[in-house]
Amino acid sequence: MQRTTQVSLIGAPTDIGAGHRGASMGPEALRVAGIGQALTQRGIRVVDRGNLGGPMNPWTGPVDGYRHLAEVVAWNRSVMEAVAAELGQGHLPVLLGGDHCLAIGSITAVARHCQATKKRLLVLWLDAHADYNTSSVTPSGNIHGMPVACLCGLGPPELTELGGTAPAISPDCVRQIGIRSVDTGEKKLVRDAGLDIYDMRYIDEIGMKRVMEEALSDIDENTHVHVSFDVDFLDPEIAPGVGTTIPGGPNYREAQLCMEMIADRGGLGSLDIMELNPAFDEHNKTAVLAVDLVESLFGKSTLMRD
């Protein structure tokens, strides 16, 4: 990221694709935790664009395998247009979610921008889940478990073709880090796609430093790095404020090292912060931790490296 780049905060207050209510409060929790002020203090120009609007969550069951598909499409279209507008002005968009289905809109916009500017896209998907489900392998129909599959062309055409063509990206654009919960049917889809996954077993075996060196190894000056940060990436012991807690995630230092190494490598062009759910949090501590990690992603280092 260039120091002259404007960071634009875009709130998307909806839990339209989730299985629990509450992620709609995520953007405000991040603002209360001081995300704008934290980045401003790092010498970054920050503009808060406020919140996008969209349909209310009807909280109904799945229809033809998907819950709230029309509403999910509407929200993702708004996100896609807002992110595209910021990228078109040379700004760095930070999407404040909201549930992770919204990454379909944000990453579709980023992929189209990269195509137009002849940049290579690298998506770093920090998450406990692979999010590569389809309606045929998940009975819940919750679309927040499907965004990577939709982006890679597996899913309803309303989402796979959100940007006009499908797929929006190819699986080789994606590096998934911190994965520790993959549904049985989803495992076959992930293997068939050849998705590059650095799961928690691998992190335990070789350590976060080597994992990040591998994941970031081919970034060059023509790479646009998009980080899609699901807060459930973190171990719930330190980050309880999510709807889908999965034990055994990265601890505080592992998460900090992950973010610091992304910052050191350079190329950050866009960011999602997803699935923060204040309804499950303790005194907003997960939002405060998320802001702390985002500061590291934008260059705050430990000790004397700052």
Automatic annotation (TrEMBL):
Top EC class of this enzyme: hydrolase
GO terms under biological process: arginine metabolic process; urea cycle
Keyword Metal-binding: yes
Organism whose genome encodes this protein: Dokdonella immobilis
GO molecular function: arginase activity; manganese ion binding
Sites where the protein binds Mn(2+) 2: 232
NCBIfam families linked to this entry: rocF_arginase (TIGR01229)
UniProt record similarity statement: Belongs to the arginase family.
EC code: 3.5.3.1
Catalyzed reactions: L-arginine + H2O = urea + L-ornithine
Keyword Metal-binding: yes
Reported cofactor(s): Mn(2+)
SUPFAM superfamilies in the record: Arginase/deacetylase
Name by which UniProt lists this protein: Arginase
Organism domain of life: Bacteria
Biological or metabolic pathway of the protein: Nitrogen metabolism; urea cycle; L-ornithine and urea from L-arginine: step 1/1
Pfam annotation, one family: Arginase
Binding residues for Mn(2+) 1: 100, 127, 129, 131, 230
Co-factor remark: Binds 2 manganese ions per subunit.
CC per GO annotation: cytoplasm
UniProt KW keywords: Arginine metabolism, Hydrolase, Manganese, Metal-binding
